[in-house]
Specification:
With 104 residues, the chain is of the alpha+beta class. It is 33% helix and 18% strand. The chain has a domain of 64 residues. The longest helix is centred in the last third of the chain and has 22 residues. The chain is extended and about 60 Å long.
């Protein structure tokens, strides 16, 4: 009976090839309202004054908190295996006149 219960609780997740390739991003812009968090993933290219949002993730506050915990846990596991992740002394920042045009 326990084996049958396990099978009922399993989730089959499909990963299409074009999604599996991923999208490179070197900037995340996070905003929120009272009901959702919006994370825009952007690719900034040196000496190019314009950048596009490559992907947008919209989460409930509860899912945003779960994502934060999962990322924290994974960073700790990564550092335990590979050593401390050094943060850049010069983080890549968006231009000072950067203002997102879209609001969620």
């Amino acid at each position: 009976m326990a084996e049958e219960q396990k099978k009922q609780n399993q989730l089959n997740i499909e990963l299409p090839e074009e999604v599996a390739e991923g999208i490179y991003s070197n900037l995340a812009i996070i905003s929120h309202s009272n009901s959702e968090f919006v994370i825009d993933f952007v690719r900034l290219v040196p000496n190019v004054p314009k950048a596009k949002v490559k992907s947008r993730l919209i989460l409930t506050p509860q899912h945003a908190k779960r994502l934060l915990k999962a990322l924290t846990d994974n960073v700790h596991k990564f550092e335990a295996q590979h050593g401390h992740i050094k943060e850049s002394d010069h983080p890549m920042m968006p231009p000072l006149n950067f203002k997102p045009k879209a609001q969620a």
